């Protein structure tokens, strides 16, 4: 199998027919996309990471080729449970987990709710809680309507790949609810209790407050003087000249950072 011809399939997960792709070979790495995105949107990163490992790319509920379930709210906790269930269905006992934005918060919830299936964790552009977003971000999300996406690549991909293209307005409603009302965040005590080494990556012009990210890093055991003690198990990287919306295009920086972190021995 090559990175350009993945094995694809669907898994029955809690009433969903969840679409997934398997790229490359080696140690398993789950890749989780952001809101309104899909495995297609993560293609560049997936291809680069599949050079050295097996990448399991997933379309979350209501995204890409995974149809929504009208009677099931979209929550980070439920999406995390879906990821753990998919790993079980694929008979993968443990994997590294990487997520971007919505997918990063989902990845964090996988580590919280199912620590036994997570080896290392990579968080790309996501806060611990809604207060970690810069001023105005949540207000902008709350104002989203389906009409704002007319003619956009997001709408075009949804119309092309979704099993039920007419469900796009419902997805917009669920994403607004997800980001503005349904998730209060992960507590400081919960983060401190995580056992998975974590790499947090953010753009220097991201929608997430840098002070919040530094506090996340401290909770994960970072921001210490390691000249006189062992390096922390978790790491922090800030990508120069990067926004929340374009950080995934910086593969020349992201890929070696992620690969080096995942390949480093646990010690």
What does this structure look like?
A hairpin with a 2-residue loop joins strand 1 and strand 2 (16-23). This protein is α/β, with parallel strands linked by helices. Helix content is 34%, strand content 21%. Strands 1-2-4-3-5-6-7-8 form an 8-stranded mixed beta sheet, sandwiched between helices. The two termini are 32 Å apart. The longest helix is centred in the middle third of the chain and has 15 residues, at 168-182. It has helices spanning 43-49, 76-89, 102-113, 137-142, 153-161, 168-182, 188-192, 210-219, 251-263, and strands spanning 7-13, 16-23, 28-32, 54-58, 95-100, 118-124, 198-205, 235-243.
N-end to C-end Cα span: 32 Å
What class would the helix/strand composition place it in? Answer: alpha/beta
Largest sheet: 8 strands, mixed
SSE topology string: EEEHEHEHEHHHHEHEH
Low-confidence stretches: none
Mean pLDDT: 94
The radius of gyration over CA amounts to 18 Å
According to DSSP, the number of beta strands is: 8
Oligomer designation: single chain
Query: Strand portion, in percent?
Result: 15-25%
Silhouette? globular
How do the strands line up in the largest sheet?
1-2-4-3-5-6-7-8
Percent of residues in helical segments? 25-40%
Number of continuous helical runs: 9
Keyphrases for this structure?
8-stranded mixed sheet, alpha/beta, 34% helix, 9 helices, 8 strands, globular, 267 residues
Q: Which helices and strands appear, and what pairs or packs with what?
A:
Blueprint: E1 7-13, E2 16-23, E3 28-32, H1 43-49, E4 54-58, H2 76-89, E5 95-100, H3 102-113, E6 118-124, H4 137-142, H5 153-161, H6 168-182, H7 188-192, E7 198-205, H8 210-219, E8 235-243, H9 251-263
Parallel strand pairs: 3-4, 3-5, 5-6, 6-7, 7-8
Antiparallel strand pairs: 1-2, 2-4
